[in-house]
Amino acid sequence: MRRGIRKGAAWLAAGAAAIALLAAPAPAAIYWGDSGTIGAANLDGSDPNSRYLLFRHLSGPTCDIAVSDSHLYWCEWFGLWRVNLDGPAAPTQVVSGLSNPGGIAIDGNHLYWANRDGDSVARSGLDGSGRNDSFITGLDSPCEVAVDGEFVYWIDWRGIGRARLDGSGVEEPFIPTAPGGCGLAVDAGYLYWSAGEGAIGRATLDGAEVDHRFITGVGIVGSIATSGGHIYWTDKPEGMAYSSIDRATLGVAPVRDWIVPPIFTIGGVAADLRYEPPPRPLPSLPISFGLTRYDKRAGTAVVDVTVPRRGDLRVLAPKVGWKVIKGPEPPPSHIGSFRWRLKIWPGLSPKGNRIRTQLRNKGRAKVALRLSYTEEGQLPSTTVKRVTLRKVKKKL
To answer: Buried b / exposed e across 229-246, counting CB within 10 Å, b at 16+?
Structure first.
């Protein structure tokens, strides 16, 4: 099936908006939820990091994420969380006691979410204060929300609804649609939604120019975001277990790109308008050690190292000879630990010369190795491992 975006007169307005957006500095990143993590990449899909934010002992995003200029927000099965992009790294639960919430959205003052089981849209302050679970009621299993400067929007079984930001003037449905998914996004000129049957729909903000097949040839669309003249969505091919993040260019010749490799589960997508990406905030998990094997003829040692995740292991001090021997590495989605081997020998440095002298004279030399382990996508952590090199003394 040909994949593309319908052309029409509406492109003129979208084109002008895209030109204005492209004139500004490029937004920094696109984020997506994964199991226990939030991943990130540049808006063109380059430099992907599947563990951009790794949450220790917490559930990752299960339905949606949202981003402001200071925080990342996400929802999981029982509540809503956020983390400060400038630190500290510890996530904070801002809303608790929920049951399978739907999508979330934020503006300058409020956090909105869909109460799927409660048939309502809820609202609170960005820190969870002033919570109102019945902000907009009488809906039919809403599963996603979006917000702009005038309205809050939602999608449920009857279509797309909207209300003013104070909850008044409820229009349900504002745009009737057939059930087709939970993706919903808004930009300066249009609403976009999961239209089902391999399509994304679009309409102007006054509900006109409804096009249920604005983008075609897609899979199951679970989440939508817009930024920098592009539309992004999570795309799960029919009958497949994995999803990817795709994008298309708005206002110019239609181009549909696959920008993030397949991931087993994606819990939402969001675009960040920061011009510099925030730092990677968490220290790497600790490594541990197993057996140490000695070659007494060569004066070398091999240490078994248990590594919690994919990453990089280095000897920082002292200046000895060393080599990390890695076995087959698991795919990036692998969670469990695995083993490497670290081989060390005296080396050619002044410290190495002193070690060789001790081995020659005493048959052993104590070495305090300062190791650096950098978990993929995180900050390095250091560990000290004491090893006693041994060598058979030559008989006189």
So the answer is: bbbbbbbbeeeeeebbbb
pLDDT surpassing 70 at residue 266: yes
Rg of the chain over Cα atoms, rounded to whole angstroms, equals 27
pTM of the model: 0.71
- Domains of the chain with CATH codes: 11-272 (2.120.10.30), 288-390 (2.60.40)
Residue 144, judged by CB atoms within 10 A of its CB (0-12, 13-18, 19+), counts as buried
pLDDT, tens digit, for every residue of 97-110?
A: 988 888 999 999 99
Cα angle 189, 151, 278 (rounded to 5 degrees) comes to 75
